[in-house]
């Protein structure tokens, strides 16, 4: 899309903050006004718009994409978003361990067990771990407690959390990332543990490299988006 504006600026509005292009407030793809809760987030999104060259490339504007998701999807389908996100806990990647080789089993335990311990101790949600790929059922009370963590999030924080869960394939990793237990690099290492192990053994192809870059970028964006909300 060709860039048709010269200036991107942050503006105060009655409901909070927004970003303007040549003085005109931005709207989301769903045609909702872009109303942002903090100046820090508005400033960061304005920077994304300013950084565009002769063409606007949405894929280089992750904060804008996340912000637009809030009115376009989260606010309209909050219960559905929470239900779909909870499914990551029901089949969480960190709960399914390899049967071998021993070096992979040890690595999974070293990286994933501390996250599960943190979840159990900090949120009272003890998830069951298994070896192999046969599906298991997680305790209902643990899932209910994890559902409560989402209920307590506002739409903005839920957006960041859902994005992290979708990128990592793990409710546990996403929650640890959003709540500051781990950083984006650690979240990437945890979510890509099995893939990294295979790459060390067999090498990496271009498709895998591109996919992993997207995961790393998405996790970094989700954490930054959450941090810019403050509080």
Explain the overall architecture.
- Helices cover about 60% and strands about 10% of the residues.
- It is built from ten helices and five strands.
- The chain folds into two domains: about 70 residues, ATP12-like (2-Layer Sandwich); about 150 residues, ATP12 ATPase (ATP12-like fold).
- Helix 4 links the parallel strand 4 and strand 5.
- The relative contact order is 0.12.
- Helix 3 runs antiparallel to helix 5 and helix 3 packs parallel to helix 6.
- The strands form two sheets. The chain has a three-stranded antiparallel β-sheet with strand order 1-2-3.
- The protein has about 230 residues and is mainly α.
- It is globular and about 60 Å long.
- The mean pLDDT is about 95.
Layout of helices and strands:
Layout: E1 8-13, E2 16-21, E3 24-25, H1 39-50, H2 62-74, H3 78-90, E4 96-97, H4 102-123, E5 130-131, H5 140-151, H6 155-168, H7 171-178, H8 184-191, H9 193-202, H10 206-228
Parallel strand pairs: 4-5
Antiparallel strand pairs: 1-2, 2-3
Helix pairs in contact: 2-6, 2-10, 3-5, 3-6, 6-7, 6-10, 7-8, 8-10
List its salient traits.
single chain; 231 residues; mainly alpha; ATP12-like; ATP12-like fold; 2 domains; three-stranded antiparallel beta sheet; 10 helices; 58% helix; 8% strand; globular
Quick structural overview:
The protein is mainly alpha-helical and 231 residues long.
Can you list the strand order of the major beta sheet? 1-2-3
Oligomer state of the chains in this structure: single chain
- The CATH topology name of the largest domain reads ATP12-like fold
Name the CATH superfamily classification of the largest domain.
ATP12 ATPase
Structural class: mainly alpha
Overall helicity: 55-70%
CATH architecture descriptor name of the largest domain: Orthogonal Bundle
**What number of structural domains do the residues give?**
2
Main sheet overview: 3 strands, antiparallel
What's the order of the H and E elements? EEEHHHEHEHHHHHH
How many helical stretches?
Answer: 10
Q: How confident overall, as mean pLDDT?
A: 96
Global morphology:
globular
Low-confidence stretches: none
């Amino acid at each position: 899309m060709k860039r048709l504006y010269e200036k991107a600026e942050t503006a105060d509005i009655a409901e909070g903050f927004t970003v303007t292009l040549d003085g005109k407030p931005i709207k989301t793809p769903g045609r909702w006004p872009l109303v942002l809760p903090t100046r820090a987030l508005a400033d960061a999104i304005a920077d994304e718009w300013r950084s565009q060259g002769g063409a606007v490339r949405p894929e280089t504007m992750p904060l804008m994409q996340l912000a637009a998701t809030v009115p376009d999807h989260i606010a309209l389908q909050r219960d559905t978003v929470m239900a779909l996100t909870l499914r990551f806990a029901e089949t969480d990647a960190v709960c399914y361990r390899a049967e071998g080789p021993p070096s992979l089993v040890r690595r999974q335990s070293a990286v994933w067990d501390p996250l599960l311990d943190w979840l159990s101790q900090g949120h009272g949600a003890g998830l069951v771990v298994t070896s192999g790929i046969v599906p298991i059922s997680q305790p209902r009370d643990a899932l209910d407690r994890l559902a409560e963590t989402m209920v307590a999030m506002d739409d903005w924080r839920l957006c960041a959390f859902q994005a992290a869960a979708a990128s990592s394939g793990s409710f546990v990793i996403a929650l640890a990332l959003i709540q500051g237990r781990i950083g984006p690099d650690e979240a990437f290492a945890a979510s890509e543990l099995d893939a990294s192990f295979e790459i060390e053994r067999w090498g990496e192809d271009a498709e895998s490299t591109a996919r992993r870059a997207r995961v790393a970028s998405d996790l970094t964006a989700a954490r930054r988006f959450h941090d810019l909300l403050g509080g």
